[in-house]
Design brief:
Elements (H helix, E strand, L loop, with lengths): L16 E6 L4 H15 L3 E8 L12 H19 L3 E7 L7 H15 L3 E5 L9 H16 L10 H6 L7 E5 L6 E4 L4 H8 L8 H19 L7 E7 L9
Parallel strand pairs: 1-2, 1-4, 2-3, 4-5
Antiparallel strand pairs: 5-7, 6-7
Length: 248
């Protein structure tokens, strides 16, 4: 038997400002572009924060690191325009490399206190069989940053941001890439936008691989929506922040 939290599931459609914390430059859109576009259309401000530099996945090996990084940024800019993203932040940790977890958490605390989102989206760090440490560390650091944002004795990476921070309420934590969803979002009306955004990420996919990715996303979205009255779905684990400690 699964014992759920006694706290109510936050209403993601009430979101006014969302910080989407992703391990790699395309994760937010691959996993949640459908619901994020809906929320943006309803007036929510959307901000993307990317933890790693993504250089390991660039398919054109002839590019220098500087040129590859610029290509990645151009991809993100194009996808952001499709999605209506208001701002993007980059931490630049080495993709699939060595970096300190607590450094990431300090940086995420900085941007939580700076952006002051009411909802935070990120990768589920407890996804069954997840083998990519970038995903695990990003999701867990984002979780702890949400828990600790109001505890100013826990420093971020920017003392000035900490000094100016006056507190705010995070209403909900939303995990994508999850096998334990508490909500299936109907993304039928925004499916085409999701595909358009995902296809912007050309630096890490050749045309054939991109077609296979879109096909896989369509199959998964249809599978998730089975038994419902809509065609495409995105699985999300939506939690009240108070449920993130001790399982209350």
């Amino acid at each position: 038997m699964t014992i759920e939290t006694i706290l109510p599931i936050p209403d993601i459609y009430s979101a006014k400002r969302i910080l989407c914390i992703q391990p790699h430059y395309d994760d937010n859109d691959i996993a949640a572009a459908g619901i994020l576009k809906q929320l943006n259309d309803r007036g929510a401000e959307i901000f993307y924060l990317t933890v790693t530099d993504d250089l390991m996945g660039v398919v054109d090996e002839s590019l220098s690191s500087e040129d590859a990084a610029q290509t990645l940024k151009l991809d993100q800019q194009a996808a952001g325009e499709v999605m209506g993203v208001k701002g993007q932040y980059w931490l630049g940790y080495p993709d699939a490399g060595e970096y300190d977890y607590f450094d990431v958490r300090r940086d995420l605390l900085k941007y939580l206190r700076l952006v002051k989102p009411d909802f935070v989206f990120t990768a589920d760090p407890w996804l069954t069989y997840e083998g990519h440490r970038d995903h695990i560390q990003t999701g867990l650091a984002a979780t702890e940053a949400v828990m600790f944002a109001g505890l100013t004795k826990i420093a971020s990476s920017d003392a000035e941001v900490d000094a100016a921070y006056e507190g705010h309420d995070v209403k909900g934590m939303v995990y994508y890439y999850t096998r334990e969803p508490s909500y299936i979002a109907d993304i039928t009306k925004t499916w085409a936008v999701k595909v358009s955004a995902v296809r912007c990420y050309q630096a890490q996919f050749n045309p054939a691989d991109m077609d296979r990715l879109v096909m896989a996303l369509e199959m998964k979205s249809r599978q998730v929506a089975e038994g419902s009255d809509f065609e495409y779905g995105e699985p999300l684990k939506v939690l009240h922040p108070s449920a993130l400690h001790c399982g209350i």
